[in-house]
Amino acid sequence: MYLVVLGLALIIMKYMQFGPVAALSWLWVLSPFALAIAWWAWADSSGFTKRRAMEKELQRKQDRIDANRANLGTLSNSRKRK
Questions:
Q1: What's the CA gap between 52 and 65, in Å, rounded?
Q2: Nearest CA to 66 among 53, 79, 81?
Q3: Are residues 36 and 16 in the same domain?
Q4: Does one domain contain both 6 and 40?
Q5: Whole-angstrom Cα distance, residue 76 to residue 22?
Q6: Which residues constitute the domain of residue 16?
Q7: Is the distance from CB of 7 to CB of 38 less than 8 angstroms?
Q8: Number of domains within the chain
Q9: Helices 26-46 and 2-15: angle between axes, nearest 10 degrees
C-alpha cells in the first residue's frame, strides 16, 4: 500500500513539474507500482497473506471467547492475570 501511495505522489509531482521529481525519467516515477506488483505477487504465492488473515481471525476468535468467559465469570485464574 505504501508503494502505491508513493507512486501516486511521484506521478502528481512529475505532472506538476514539482521539485527534483520533474527531472526524473518516467521509468523511475512508475517504478513503485512495479515493486508493489512484485510484493503482492510474492505475498500471495508464498501464503503470507493467507497466514496473516488466519492469525487475525484466530486472535479475534480467542478475544471473543475470553470476553464471553469473563462476562460469565468462568475465566481461569491464569488467563485473568495476563
A1: 20
A2: 79
A3: yes
A4: yes
A5: 63
A6: 1-46
A7: no
A8: 2
A9: 170
CB 42 within 8 A of CB 16: no
Within a 10 A sphere around the Cβ of 9, how many other Cβ atoms? 14
- Only one residue has cell 501516486, namely 8
Assess whether 52 and 40 both reside in one domain.
no
The answer for residues whose C-beta is within 8 angstroms of residue 7's C-beta and 6 or more apart is 29, 30, 31, 32, 33, 36
- pLDDT tens digits along 35-73: 999 999 998 889 888 888 899 999 999 999 989 888 888
Residue 41: other Cβ atoms inside 10 A: 10
The DSSP output letter for 22 is G
